[in-house]
Amino acid sequence: MKDKDEVRVTLRLPSSLYDELLVKATGSQRSMNGEIIALLSAILLEGQDASEAALLEEWSSLRTRIAIAENDTANMRQRMAWLDEQIARLQDKRP
């Protein structure tokens, strides 16, 4: 039985775009699923008239935003690790 909120959509996409969508949808960037859904919605709204160039441009923009988010996440993890070290040092100095 299908979930009431489940929607099945068939899209014709360039294979490179499909491959990247698949990687992002199933990979570690689950937080970007909202961005992927927004991209798919834009594709659906544009319908069959959407040119491959326009879709690739939109996907390129999304990839850039994903890369920035990944970099920000890496920077935050480094900062958190540094803070953890500082806290551990302070706790070690307690009487």
TrEMBL record:
Residue intervals of the Arc-like DNA binding domain: 10-42
Keywords: DNA-binding
Keyword DNA-binding tagged: yes
Keyword DNA-binding appears in the UniProt entry: yes
Pfam families: Arc
Stored InterPro entries: Arc_DNA-bd_dom, Arc_rbn_hlx_hlx, Ribbon_hlx_hlx
Gene Ontology MF annotations: DNA binding
Gene Ontology biological-process entries: regulation of DNA-templated transcription
Protein's name in the database: Arc family DNA-binding protein
Organism: Sphingobium psychrophilum
